[in-house]
Amino acid sequence: MSELYATRRTRLRDRCQAGGSQSALISRPANVRYLAGAAPRGSVLLLGMTEDLLVCAGPPDDRPGAGRPDENLRLHHLPGAAGDPAVAAADLATAQGADSVAVEEQHLTVARHRAIRSVVPRLRLADLGGAVEQLRVIKDEEEISCLRIGAEIADQALGELLESILVGRTERHLALELERRLVDHGADGPAFATSVGTGPNSGRPGHRPTDRRVEEGDFLSVCLGANYRGYRCEIGRTFVIGTSPADWQIELYDLVFAAQRAGRESLAPGAAYRDVDRAARQVLESAGHHEGLPTLTGHGVGLEIDEDPQLAPAAMGKLDACVPVTVEPGVHLPGRGGVRIDDTLVVRPEADGGPELLTITTKELLAL
């Protein structure tokens, strides 16, 4: 892994130098982890002129599974708990002879910016922009392996829940049980707050579980994900509780399933982001569902649960191979409920079998 981190830092350094910056200061936690490995909370990474430094306010986390920083990267610990690693890193950049440093302006607070200015007033600060995020879009096979294991964990947790008695239990209880099962199966924790919606709450994107109890005839929609070694996946499924589904439920489910399939089948290297969104969205709109649709059909996943690319109507850009994304169309009917089907896939060329499905829990409309 050390060689991998070094390669990532070299690619970023080349971008910085092409933009006229001699050094770079990385402060966004996911970007620090991508370039330096697991790092203590609040750490920043300095790509320096003479050496790269991980500037830390505290010691590494020694808990099992917490991970360690790149062993070939020198750690610079601030004395005690005082001081700001970002300010210290800027000062260290100057000590190495830099007169300019690229910073993540979207992440660097105004207070931090002022503090750097006060300590090293002659250091020119340039905007790094989304350079690291752009590097993170295409995943290597080590990253995809972590996502694949996370997806297996999420599938296991969901599969076990479906074998239990659900009627009478609350959304909140089911969400907590799912998150416990994720950890039991080896996840570092949930990738995001687990969503469980029943009856009129089903199919709502981002629904926060309530104390509403599961009733017979309800739609039950679940969206969860596992965080495994820092990488986050996502799965969403909808079921019917306790009885055969009603005609309107079958019709709505089949519609969302068709939209999700259209989105999945459109994933290919070179496909425009907005064309993937359009493939799924047109299925729903042609059936008369124009209002209340999700703002996007899917998004990238990795060290964060919502990364580039964004599969949305106005999104610019095209997919590459080895880019993991979600495809998650849904329809919610106010007062009745709805359907959401959500998978995590990796874009692969047709010669390699097309998109790789990571989340494999059945998409059949089951009556539980």
Summarize the topology.
Blueprint: H1 2-18, E1 23-26, H2 29-36, E2 44-47, E3 52-56, E4 74-77, H3 85-95, E5 100-103, H4 110-119, E6 124-127, H5 131-137, H6 141-162, H7 171-184, E7 189-190, E8 195-198, E9 219-224, E10 226-228, E11 231-232, E12 235-240, H8 247-265, H9 273-286, E13 298-300, E14 307-311, E15 324-327, E16 330-333, E17 337-340, E18 343-346, E19 356-357
Parallel strand pairs: 1-5, 3-4, 5-6
Antiparallel strand pairs: 1-2, 2-3, 7-10, 8-9, 9-12, 10-11, 13-14, 15-18, 16-17, 18-19
Helix pairs in contact: 3-4, 6-7, 8-9
Give your account of this protein's structure.
- This protein is α+β, with helices and mostly antiparallel strands and 368 residues long.
- It is built from 9 helices and 19 strands.
- The chain has helices at residues 2-18, 29-36, 85-95, 110-119, 131-137, 141-162, 171-184, 247-265, 273-286, and strands spanning 23-26, 44-47, 52-56, 74-77, 100-103, 124-127, 189-190, 195-198, 219-224, 226-228, 231-232, 235-240, 298-300, 307-311, 324-327, 330-333, 337-340, 343-346, 356-357.
- The strands form 6 sheets. A 6-stranded mixed beta sheet has the order 4-3-2-1-5-6, with helices on both faces. Strands 7-10-11 form a 3-stranded antiparallel beta sheet.
- It is elongated and about 70 Å long.
- The chain starts with a helix and ends in an 11-residue tail after the last strand.
